[in-house]
């Protein structure tokens, strides 16, 4: 277990029975889940994400979360905090932060950054291994955030609702929740094949080798609003020798704008603002959903 990392018991809240099988089933796969294990995906997450955020016009997100934290005050809880891309920036900006993530491999990446931080910054960030749909922490927060579509990794409506219920209980009265999802583009979602199989390559931050990324297959469950993609990560030397090849399955649930608003209202939040980008532009079909809500 990494330093300052805590495993959290699951709350005693009973789970409802699983939903019955629907007419469209996702393919069974033996490939490991996204982010769950150490490997090329988690090792290249930061370099890939830095590139992807710029390409998608989302690179102002960290500045946005810092602005919001200045407005609400801390402490801040990051749900699905991953490698600490946002959490460390918040700690550097002076906020106490708890980074919560299900993946030990991602938490290890976040913890690996601790030694580069000054002692006072390091002391402000704690990592916790837990499921964002079922956790119990010993403190409350002024702000909870789920950056870069982390909420979409909850692939049932039930888990989404439990996450919001649990998070509201962890917020001070009047505390804020910020969720970032993509706004579903129906033309992209209905197709079965990968819309863009070649996802390019990045340089591995440690070995300097080329890591090529491809989406091998994609299936869509229109009933449950879930898509599943099989990603391949292949590391090769400059001479073209394959060093490692790994496959992981990404599953995300898309949520429609009014579904999200109603879910927030149902779980005790008042929507204060809804943006389509981190420069606070109003809602636009097919761009982003950035929700700022207040716990009632
Ligand atoms: C796209 S990454 C976002 C990471 C980080 N928020 C960022 O902006 O760079 C999604 C993260 O959510 C985590 N995750 C997925 N399902 C989760 C769950 N049920 N509970 C907590 N974390 C989860 C993954 O391990 C991963 O680190």
Q: Which helices and strands appear, and what pairs or packs with what?
A:
Blueprint: E1 5-7, E2 32-33, H1 40-43, H2 45-55, H3 61-72, E3 76-79, H4 87-92, E4 97-101, H5 104-112, H6 119-124, E5 125-129, E6 141-146, H7 157-169, E7 171-182, H8 186-189, E8 198-203, E9 210-221, E10 226-236, E11 242-253, H9 257-266, E12 269-275, E13 288-295
Parallel strand pairs: 1-5, 2-11, 3-4, 3-6, 4-5, 6-7
Antiparallel strand pairs: 7-13, 8-9, 9-10, 10-11, 12-13
Bound molecules: S-adenosylmethionine.
S-adenosylmethionine is lined by residues 35, 49, 80-82, 85-86, 101-103, 106, 131-133, 147-150, 153-154.
Describe this protein's structure:
With 296 residues, this protein is of the alpha/beta class. It has two domains: 60-184 and 254-295, Rossmann fold; 186-252. The chain has helices spanning 40-43, 45-55, 61-72, 87-92, 104-112, 119-124, 157-169, 186-189, 257-266, and strands spanning 5-7, 32-33, 76-79, 97-101, 125-129, 141-146, 171-182, 198-203, 210-221, 226-236, 242-253, 269-275, 288-295. The strands form two sheets. An eight-stranded mixed beta sheet has the order 1-5-4-3-6-7-13-12, with helices on both faces. The chain has a five-stranded mixed beta sheet with strand order 2-11-10-9-8, with no helix packed on it. The longest helix has 13 residues, at 157-169. Bound molecules: S-adenosylmethionine. The site of S-adenosylmethionine (SAM) has 20 residues, from loops.
């Amino acid at each position: 277990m990494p330093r300052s990392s805590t495993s959290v018991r699951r709350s005693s809240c009973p789970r409802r029975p699983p939903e019955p099988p629907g007419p469209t089933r996702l393919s069974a796969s033996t490939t490991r889940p996204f982010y769950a294990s150490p490997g090329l995906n988690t090792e290249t997450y930061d370099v890939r994400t830095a590139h992807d955020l710029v390409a998608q016009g989302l690179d102002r997100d960290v500045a946005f979360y810092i602005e919001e934290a200045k407005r609400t005050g801390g402490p801040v809880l990051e749900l699905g905090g991953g490698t600490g891309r946002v959490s460390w920036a918040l700690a550097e900006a002076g906020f106490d932060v708890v980074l919560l993530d299900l993946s030990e491999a991602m938490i290890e990446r976040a913890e690996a950054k601790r030694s580069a931080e000054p002692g006072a910054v390091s002391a402000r960030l704690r990592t916790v291994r837990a499921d964002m749909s079922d956790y119990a922490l010993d403190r409350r927060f002024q702000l909870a955030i789920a950056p870069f579509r982390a909420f979409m990794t909850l692939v049932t409506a039930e888990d989404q609702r439990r996450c919001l219920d649990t998070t509201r209980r962890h917020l001070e009265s009047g505390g804020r929740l910020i969720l970032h999802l993509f706004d579903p583009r129906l033309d992209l979602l209905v197709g079965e094949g990968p819309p863009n199989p070649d996802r390019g390559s990045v340089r591995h931050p440690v070995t300097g080798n080329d890591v090529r990324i491809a989406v091998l297959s994609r299936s869509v469950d229109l009933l449950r609003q879930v898509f599943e993609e099989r990603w391949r990560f292949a590391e090769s030397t400059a001479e073209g020798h394959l060093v490692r090849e790994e496959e992981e399955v990404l599953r995300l649930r898309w949520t429609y704008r009014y579904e999200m608003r109603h879910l927030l209202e149902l779980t005790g939040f008042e929507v204060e603002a809804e943006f389509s980008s981190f420069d606070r532009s109003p809602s636009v079909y097919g761009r982003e959903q950035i929700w700022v809500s207040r716990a009632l």
